[in-house]
Amino acid sequence: MLSDLPRKNCWSIAEWAGEASSDGVQHLLGRATWDADRVRGDVREYVLEHLGDEDAVLVVDETGDVKKGTHTVGVQRQYAGTAGRIENPQVAVYLVYAGLRGHAAVDWELYIPRSRTCDPDRCRAAGPGEDTVFATKPALAARVIGRLSTPGTA
Hints:
Blueprint (H helix, E strand, L loop, with lengths): L9 H7 L6 H8 L5 H16 L5 E10 L11 E3 L4 E3 L1 E11 L2 E10 L2 H4 L2 H7 L10 H13 L5
Antiparallel strand pairs: 1-4, 2-3, 4-5
Helix pairs in contact: 1-2
């Protein structure tokens, strides 16, 4: 995923990695069980070790992925910058580490609108759980920056 391949799909990544088929990459990206907190920590460690730079900056941005329907966690009618208008997106706040040696996305938090966190049944059905509490996008940004700044946190 960090290669300079012009197009990244299961076949091109597998070929680049020296694999005879794309089966392993397809499993990894489509069916493998991931522990998001552990992956996030591994990515953070890799980036700091290989891209570490005293003059690096952190870039925080939100992006919305337009979805069909209303069952995906966090989806509701709201502004989606990627579409340039009000749509039905799932929005996340991302943290990117950028330095002279390169840049990489190192963390993210899904934005769950207040209308969703006020409905425990809907939260439970969509995935985040009925104990999910509302957090503003600036609060989510502070959370991802705090995790990068505090080694050992997920």
